[in-house]
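Support reply, case 0932

Customer input (verbatim):
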Amino acid sequence: MRSARGESRTALVRPLSVPPWERQPPTWQAARPSVIADALKRAVNRPSGNWYVIGASRDVPAGRPRGRTVAGVELVAWRNAAGELAVAPGACPHLGAPLWESALCGGRLVCRWHGLALDERGMGGWQPFPAYDDGVLAWVRLDRAGGEEPTPAPVLPARPRPGRTLDAVTTQVGRCEPEDVVANRLDPWHGSWFHPYAFTRLTVVEEPDPRDGDRFVVDVAYRLPARTGVPVRAAFTAPEPRTVVMHILDGEGASSVVETHATPLTPPGDPRPRTAVVEAVLATSDRRGFTAARRMAPLLRPLVRRAAARLWRDDLAYAERRCRLRAEGRFPG
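Our regenerated output:
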């Protein structure tokens, strides 16, 4: 029910009757390995256009280059004279100096070894890669690593309006492959068992279409202190092979989005794979207080990042275990 101001009258926080952890309903019979595996297979076979997330947009500031490694490719990211994102090979074409240590002068990288100045126009065999800044995340297109038909822009999910959004991005690194991260997100049944401090009363109310789908819909309550929580309905989908998106469909924060992007750090086939999980929370609300919350974004972002990092400490253990079992030929799924 909504008031004339368009605000929900439903209580933000509700008291919860939470059973002891060991007495909550088991979910292992519902979490059928074939359902997760089939959804994963459909997700990883979707096109990406060879785009990879390298981090948060705000992590590439105007005055300093940043170094990144994606799929075994050393990169340097910076802002050109117009403030636009640029990404290029991370080694200086002269003698291989690390360009992330270069000085940034007028939008040009100036190598600290011998003063060679480079910009987005490139030089000889040193040529920048296609880059994309969506306002929250920074992307790079690596056609040789991706091996797909390239696209002019990455596959982006629907997001709330930027003017009504509080965004926060966190990055964690695990010893696994991107598919292990995606598989974790396409297993919603583990939520209240593996993260009892964060979730309770989780029920999967819709499973993917076995022919072509990967959409899971869940009802879940986000736990708060004093046996209270925020109930929501959320949908999980995979728009491209290294991304899983959660959209809040109903409840507090409807239209909010959590994007989980899995970026390989090591080259394909590496015996010791490492993957960066870049998770973007894009929160929105119709409540009056949310405008004030957005003004406090610099104070709130660290809290959001801390909560996401705690969840991903658990979920990376899941992904790393899955990767290790696959490598040993012992994964039962």
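We compared this against your earlier run and they match. Two observations from our side: Helices lie at 33-44, 143-146, 178-185, 191-194, 289-295, 297-327. Confidence is low (pLDDT under 50) at residues 1-9. Please reopen the case if you see a mismatch on your end.
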